[in-house]
Amino acid sequence: VVVCQDADGRSNSYCDERVKPAESKSCDSGPCPLWNYSAWGECTQTCGGGRRTRLVVCQRPDGQRLNDYNCDILDKPPDVERCNLQPCPGSASWHRRPWKPCSVSCGRGIKQREISCLLQNQTRIEEAHCSHLPRPRTQKTCRARGCPTWKANRWRECSTTCGPGLQKRDVYCRLKGTGRVREDLCDPHSRLPTIQPCLTSECTPFTWVVADWEHCNATCGEGVRSRKVDCKGPGRTTVHDDYCEPSSRPSSLQLCEEAPCLYMWITAEWSQCSASCGVGFQQRIVSCSARPSSYSTQQFYPPSSFTSKSCPEPQPPATQPCLLRECSHTTYWKVGPWTTCSQ
Protein backbone atom coordinates (compact mmCIF):
# COMPACT_ATOMS: atom_id res chain seq x y z
CA VAL A 1 0.00 0.00 0.00
CA VAL A 2 1.41 3.45 -0.97
CA VAL A 3 -0.13 6.70 0.50
CA CYS A 4 0.67 10.45 0.15
CA GLN A 5 1.22 12.38 3.43
CA ASP A 6 3.16 15.40 4.71
CA ALA A 7 6.06 15.47 7.16
CA ASP A 8 3.67 15.38 10.10
CA GLY A 9 1.97 12.26 8.81
CA ARG A 10 -1.17 14.01 7.63
CA SER A 11 -2.80 13.00 4.36
CA ASN A 12 -1.72 15.16 1.44
CA SER A 13 -2.94 15.31 -2.14
CA TYR A 14 0.05 17.16 -3.57
CA CYS A 15 2.14 14.08 -4.40
CA ASP A 16 3.16 13.56 -8.05
CA GLU A 17 1.31 10.53 -9.34
CA ARG A 18 3.99 9.96 -11.97
CA VAL A 19 6.62 9.01 -9.41
CA LYS A 20 4.33 7.00 -7.15
CA PRO A 21 6.03 3.67 -6.13
CA ALA A 22 4.44 0.44 -7.40
CA GLU A 23 1.97 -1.27 -5.04
CA SER A 24 2.46 -4.86 -6.37
CA LYS A 25 5.02 -7.01 -8.11
CA SER A 26 5.08 -10.52 -9.60
CA CYS A 27 6.54 -13.52 -7.71
CA ASP A 28 7.04 -17.29 -8.35
CA SER A 29 6.79 -19.83 -5.51
CA GLY A 30 7.10 -22.82 -7.84
CA PRO A 31 4.50 -25.05 -9.48
CA CYS A 32 1.25 -25.60 -7.57
CA PRO A 33 0.58 -28.98 -5.92
CA LEU A 34 -2.07 -31.17 -7.49
CA TRP A 35 -4.24 -34.11 -6.48
CA ASN A 36 -2.77 -37.48 -7.46
CA TYR A 37 -4.58 -40.80 -7.14
CA SER A 38 -3.92 -44.53 -7.63
CA ALA A 39 -5.97 -47.14 -9.42
CA TRP A 40 -9.13 -48.48 -7.80
CA GLY A 41 -8.77 -51.55 -5.60
CA GLU A 42 -10.89 -54.69 -5.80
CA CYS A 43 -14.58 -54.51 -5.00
CA THR A 44 -15.65 -55.99 -1.68
CA GLN A 45 -18.52 -57.87 -3.38
CA THR A 46 -18.84 -59.54 -6.77
CA CYS A 47 -22.53 -58.62 -6.94
CA GLY A 48 -25.26 -56.98 -4.92
CA GLY A 49 -23.25 -53.80 -4.35
CA GLY A 50 -19.88 -53.43 -2.74
CA ARG A 51 -17.19 -50.81 -2.14
CA ARG A 52 -13.77 -50.15 -3.57
CA THR A 53 -11.13 -47.65 -2.51
CA ARG A 54 -8.06 -45.88 -3.89
CA LEU A 55 -5.30 -43.65 -2.55
CA VAL A 56 -5.73 -39.88 -3.16
CA VAL A 57 -2.84 -37.59 -2.11
CA CYS A 58 -1.77 -33.95 -2.55
CA GLN A 59 1.64 -33.80 -4.32
CA ARG A 60 4.02 -31.40 -6.02
CA PRO A 61 5.04 -32.26 -9.57
CA ASP A 62 8.37 -33.50 -8.19
CA GLY A 63 6.53 -36.10 -6.11
CA GLN A 64 6.77 -34.35 -2.71
CA ARG A 65 3.70 -35.26 -0.66
CA LEU A 66 1.90 -32.42 1.16
CA ASN A 67 -1.00 -32.10 3.56
CA ASP A 68 -4.42 -32.06 1.95
CA TYR A 69 -5.03 -28.35 2.78
CA ASN A 70 -2.27 -27.39 0.31
CA CYS A 71 -4.54 -28.54 -2.55
CA ASP A 72 -8.01 -27.33 -3.45
CA ILE A 73 -10.11 -29.46 -1.12
CA LEU A 74 -13.21 -28.90 -3.25
CA ASP A 75 -11.51 -30.53 -6.23
CA LYS A 76 -10.30 -33.60 -4.31
CA PRO A 77 -11.19 -36.76 -6.27
CA PRO A 78 -13.21 -39.41 -4.35
CA ASP A 79 -11.23 -42.17 -2.62
CA VAL A 80 -14.18 -44.60 -2.18
CA GLU A 81 -17.08 -45.57 -4.42
CA ARG A 82 -19.69 -48.27 -4.79
CA CYS A 83 -19.13 -51.08 -7.25
CA ASN A 84 -20.71 -54.26 -8.69
CA LEU A 85 -24.20 -52.93 -8.25
CA GLN A 86 -25.77 -55.67 -10.38
CA PRO A 87 -28.07 -58.02 -8.39
CA CYS A 88 -26.69 -61.44 -7.40
CA PRO A 89 -27.97 -64.50 -9.33
CA GLY A 90 -30.37 -66.80 -7.47
CA SER A 91 -30.59 -67.08 -3.68
CA ALA A 92 -27.38 -68.97 -2.91
CA SER A 93 -25.90 -68.84 0.59
CA TRP A 94 -23.17 -70.50 2.64
CA HIS A 95 -24.18 -73.54 4.69
CA ARG A 96 -22.10 -74.30 7.79
CA ARG A 97 -21.83 -77.81 9.26
CA PRO A 98 -21.19 -78.24 13.01
CA TRP A 99 -17.63 -77.95 14.30
CA LYS A 100 -15.78 -81.26 14.57
CA PRO A 101 -14.17 -82.23 17.91
CA CYS A 102 -10.87 -80.65 18.87
CA SER A 103 -7.90 -82.29 17.14
CA VAL A 104 -6.20 -83.02 20.49
CA SER A 105 -7.43 -84.59 23.72
CA CYS A 106 -5.45 -82.11 25.80
CA GLY A 107 -3.67 -78.80 25.27
CA ARG A 108 -4.11 -76.53 22.22
CA GLY A 109 -5.47 -77.92 18.94
CA ILE A 110 -7.67 -77.09 15.94
CA LYS A 111 -11.39 -77.48 15.26
CA GLN A 112 -12.57 -77.85 11.67
CA ARG A 113 -15.92 -77.76 9.87
CA GLU A 114 -17.23 -78.08 6.34
CA ILE A 115 -18.98 -75.30 4.44
CA SER A 116 -20.85 -75.47 1.14
CA CYS A 117 -22.73 -73.13 -1.21
CA LEU A 118 -26.44 -74.08 -1.33
CA LEU A 119 -29.59 -72.84 -2.99
CA GLN A 120 -32.78 -72.39 -1.05
CA ASN A 121 -33.80 -75.94 -1.96
CA GLN A 122 -30.56 -77.17 -0.33
CA THR A 123 -29.01 -78.05 -3.70
CA ARG A 124 -25.24 -77.88 -3.56
CA ILE A 125 -23.73 -75.64 -6.27
CA GLU A 126 -20.31 -74.25 -7.18
CA GLU A 127 -18.77 -72.05 -4.48
CA ALA A 128 -18.32 -69.30 -7.06
CA HIS A 129 -22.07 -68.59 -6.77
CA CYS A 130 -21.50 -67.60 -3.11
CA SER A 131 -18.39 -65.51 -3.76
CA HIS A 132 -20.40 -62.31 -3.27
CA LEU A 133 -20.89 -63.30 0.40
CA PRO A 134 -18.19 -63.36 3.10
CA ARG A 135 -16.78 -66.91 3.23
CA PRO A 136 -17.19 -68.47 6.70
CA ARG A 137 -14.01 -69.77 8.31
CA THR A 138 -13.44 -73.52 8.22
CA GLN A 139 -11.11 -73.87 11.21
CA LYS A 140 -10.37 -72.27 14.57
CA THR A 141 -8.13 -72.94 17.55
CA CYS A 142 -9.44 -74.93 20.51
CA ARG A 143 -8.15 -75.86 23.93
CA ALA A 144 -8.92 -79.17 25.63
CA ARG A 145 -8.24 -80.01 29.27
CA GLY A 146 -4.71 -79.78 30.64
CA CYS A 147 -2.23 -82.40 29.46
CA PRO A 148 -0.72 -84.87 31.94
CA THR A 149 3.01 -84.44 32.53
CA TRP A 150 5.87 -86.60 33.74
CA LYS A 151 6.78 -86.32 37.42
CA ALA A 152 9.69 -87.94 39.22
CA ASN A 153 10.48 -88.93 42.80
CA ARG A 154 13.86 -88.21 44.40
CA TRP A 155 16.92 -90.11 43.25
CA ARG A 156 17.75 -93.19 45.34
CA GLU A 157 21.18 -93.75 46.83
CA CYS A 158 24.06 -94.57 44.53
CA SER A 159 24.41 -98.30 43.83
CA THR A 160 28.03 -98.20 45.02
CA THR A 161 29.64 -96.76 48.12
CA CYS A 162 32.62 -95.64 46.05
CA GLY A 163 33.57 -95.40 42.42
CA PRO A 164 31.13 -95.08 39.52
CA GLY A 165 27.63 -96.42 40.07
CA LEU A 166 24.02 -95.83 39.10
CA GLN A 167 21.10 -94.00 40.68
CA LYS A 168 17.47 -94.84 40.01
CA ARG A 169 14.20 -93.05 40.61
CA ASP A 170 10.50 -93.60 39.95
CA VAL A 171 8.94 -91.63 37.06
CA TYR A 172 5.17 -91.52 36.61
CA CYS A 173 2.52 -89.72 34.55
CA ARG A 174 0.48 -87.18 36.54
CA LEU A 175 -2.61 -85.13 35.66
CA LYS A 176 -3.19 -81.97 37.68
CA GLY A 177 -6.25 -82.33 39.89
CA THR A 178 -6.44 -86.09 39.30
CA GLY A 179 -3.07 -87.52 40.30
CA ARG A 180 -1.32 -90.53 38.83
CA VAL A 181 -2.70 -91.72 35.47
CA ARG A 182 -1.75 -94.24 32.78
CA GLU A 183 1.69 -93.70 31.27
CA ASP A 184 0.40 -93.87 27.70
CA LEU A 185 -1.40 -90.54 28.31
CA CYS A 186 1.95 -88.72 28.60
CA ASP A 187 4.27 -87.86 25.72
CA PRO A 188 6.85 -90.68 25.53
CA HIS A 189 9.41 -88.35 23.94
CA SER A 190 9.45 -86.06 27.01
CA ARG A 191 9.70 -88.85 29.59
CA LEU A 192 12.16 -88.02 32.38
CA PRO A 193 15.19 -90.30 32.82
CA THR A 194 14.88 -93.06 35.43
CA ILE A 195 18.60 -93.82 35.75
CA GLN A 196 21.76 -91.75 35.87
CA PRO A 197 25.43 -92.32 36.66
CA CYS A 198 26.75 -91.37 40.10
CA LEU A 199 30.08 -91.19 41.93
CA THR A 200 30.10 -90.89 45.72
CA SER A 201 33.87 -91.05 46.19
CA GLU A 202 36.96 -92.67 44.76
CA CYS A 203 37.37 -96.29 45.79
CA THR A 204 40.15 -97.59 48.05
CA PRO A 205 41.78 -100.95 47.13
CA PHE A 206 39.37 -102.66 49.54
CA THR A 207 35.62 -102.23 49.49
CA TRP A 208 32.40 -103.85 50.68
CA VAL A 209 30.44 -105.81 48.08
CA VAL A 210 26.90 -106.96 48.77
CA ALA A 211 24.88 -109.77 47.20
CA ASP A 212 21.16 -109.72 46.53
CA TRP A 213 18.77 -110.07 49.44
CA GLU A 214 17.62 -113.59 50.24
CA HIS A 215 13.93 -114.41 50.54
CA CYS A 216 12.14 -113.46 53.75
CA ASN A 217 12.44 -116.22 56.34
CA ALA A 218 8.74 -115.83 57.17
CA THR A 219 5.99 -117.08 54.88
CA CYS A 220 3.61 -114.54 56.41
CA GLY A 221 3.76 -111.67 58.83
CA GLU A 222 7.07 -110.12 59.90
CA GLY A 223 10.38 -111.80 59.31
CA VAL A 224 14.02 -111.19 58.50
CA ARG A 225 15.96 -111.50 55.27
CA SER A 226 19.71 -111.56 54.87
CA ARG A 227 22.36 -110.97 52.25
CA LYS A 228 26.02 -111.74 51.94
CA VAL A 229 28.44 -108.88 52.64
CA ASP A 230 32.08 -109.45 51.67
CA CYS A 231 35.21 -107.35 51.81
CA LYS A 232 36.82 -107.40 48.37
CA GLY A 233 40.42 -106.52 47.56
CA PRO A 234 42.31 -106.01 44.31
CA GLY A 235 41.05 -108.30 41.56
CA ARG A 236 37.68 -108.65 43.38
CA THR A 237 39.15 -111.29 45.69
CA THR A 238 37.46 -111.86 49.05
CA VAL A 239 39.65 -110.82 51.98
CA HIS A 240 39.17 -110.57 55.74
CA ASP A 241 36.67 -107.94 56.91
CA ASP A 242 39.42 -106.09 58.79
CA TYR A 243 40.74 -104.72 55.48
CA CYS A 244 37.53 -102.75 54.86
CA GLU A 245 36.21 -99.74 56.76
CA PRO A 246 33.91 -101.17 59.48
CA SER A 247 31.84 -97.97 59.81
CA SER A 248 30.74 -98.21 56.17
CA ARG A 249 29.85 -101.92 56.26
CA PRO A 250 26.39 -102.42 54.71
CA SER A 251 23.79 -104.19 56.78
CA SER A 252 23.47 -107.92 56.21
CA LEU A 253 20.03 -108.20 57.85
CA GLN A 254 16.77 -106.43 57.10
CA LEU A 255 13.25 -106.68 58.42
CA CYS A 256 10.69 -107.92 55.92
CA GLU A 257 6.95 -108.36 55.94
CA GLU A 258 4.85 -110.79 53.96
CA ALA A 259 1.07 -111.09 53.80
CA PRO A 260 -0.73 -111.14 57.17
CA CYS A 261 -0.70 -114.54 58.84
CA LEU A 262 -3.99 -116.45 58.94
CA TYR A 263 -2.55 -118.98 61.39
CA MET A 264 -0.21 -118.68 64.35
CA TRP A 265 1.87 -120.87 66.62
CA ILE A 266 0.59 -121.44 70.16
CA THR A 267 3.23 -122.39 72.74
CA ALA A 268 2.72 -123.71 76.25
CA GLU A 269 4.95 -123.05 79.24
CA TRP A 270 8.33 -124.76 79.37
CA SER A 271 8.48 -127.89 81.51
CA GLN A 272 10.90 -128.23 84.40
CA CYS A 273 14.51 -128.92 83.52
CA SER A 274 15.13 -132.66 83.16
CA ALA A 275 18.31 -132.41 85.27
CA SER A 276 18.67 -130.92 88.74
CA CYS A 277 22.29 -130.13 87.96
CA GLY A 278 24.35 -130.03 84.82
CA VAL A 279 22.90 -129.79 81.32
CA GLY A 280 19.31 -130.96 80.89
CA PHE A 281 16.37 -130.35 78.62
CA GLN A 282 13.04 -128.57 78.77
CA GLN A 283 9.96 -129.36 76.70
CA ARG A 284 6.79 -127.54 75.76
CA ILE A 285 3.76 -128.07 73.55
CA VAL A 286 3.84 -126.23 70.20
CA SER A 287 0.65 -126.25 68.09
CA CYS A 288 -0.71 -124.44 65.00
CA SER A 289 -3.99 -122.54 65.39
CA ALA A 290 -6.09 -120.13 63.31
CA ARG A 291 -5.61 -116.47 64.18
CA PRO A 292 -8.88 -115.00 65.55
CA SER A 293 -10.21 -111.71 64.23
CA SER A 294 -10.54 -110.38 67.79
CA TYR A 295 -8.71 -111.73 70.81
CA SER A 296 -11.34 -110.34 73.16
CA THR A 297 -14.37 -112.01 71.58
CA GLN A 298 -13.11 -115.28 70.04
CA GLN A 299 -11.11 -118.25 71.24
CA PHE A 300 -8.44 -120.11 69.29
CA TYR A 301 -9.56 -123.10 67.27
CA PRO A 302 -8.41 -126.50 68.54
CA PRO A 303 -4.80 -127.12 67.52
CA SER A 304 -5.70 -130.47 65.94
CA SER A 305 -7.75 -128.66 63.28
CA PHE A 306 -4.69 -127.48 61.35
CA THR A 307 -1.34 -128.88 60.22
CA SER A 308 1.99 -127.22 60.91
CA LYS A 309 2.21 -126.31 57.19
CA SER A 310 -0.55 -123.73 57.73
CA CYS A 311 1.55 -121.72 60.19
CA PRO A 312 4.42 -119.35 59.32
CA GLU A 313 7.96 -120.59 59.32
CA PRO A 314 10.08 -121.13 61.33
CA GLN A 315 8.27 -123.25 63.89
CA PRO A 316 9.12 -122.36 67.50
CA PRO A 317 11.32 -125.02 69.14
CA ALA A 318 9.62 -127.62 71.29
CA THR A 319 12.81 -128.44 73.27
CA GLN A 320 15.74 -126.46 74.57
CA PRO A 321 18.76 -127.20 76.78
CA CYS A 322 18.79 -125.97 80.36
CA LEU A 323 21.29 -125.71 83.24
CA LEU A 324 20.07 -125.18 86.76
CA ARG A 325 23.55 -125.47 88.33
CA GLU A 326 26.78 -127.29 87.90
CA CYS A 327 26.93 -130.72 89.52
CA SER A 328 29.21 -130.91 92.57
CA HIS A 329 30.22 -134.58 92.07
CA THR A 330 31.66 -136.39 89.14
CA THR A 331 28.77 -138.78 88.66
CA TYR A 332 25.56 -137.70 86.97
CA TRP A 333 22.64 -139.10 85.07
CA LYS A 334 23.05 -139.38 81.35
CA VAL A 335 19.94 -139.81 79.25
CA GLY A 336 19.72 -141.38 75.83
CA PRO A 337 17.18 -140.79 73.07
CA TRP A 338 13.55 -141.77 73.58
CA THR A 339 12.43 -145.14 72.32
CA THR A 340 9.44 -145.61 70.04
CA CYS A 341 6.07 -145.01 71.68
CA SER A 342 4.47 -148.17 73.06
CA GLN A 343 1.03 -147.19 71.82
Automatic annotation (TrEMBL):
Keywords: Repeat, Secreted, Signal. GO terms for cellular component: extracellular matrix; extracellular region. One of its GO terms (biological process) is extracellular matrix organization. GO terms for molecular function: metalloendopeptidase activity. Pfam families: TSP1_ADAMTS. InterPro entries: ADAMTS_ADAMTS-like, TSP1_rpt, TSP1_rpt_sf. Its main location: secreted. It is found in: Secreted. SMART domains: TSP1. This is ADAM metallopeptidase with thrombospondin type 1 motif, 20. It comes from Nothobranchius kadleci. The gene is ADAMTS20.
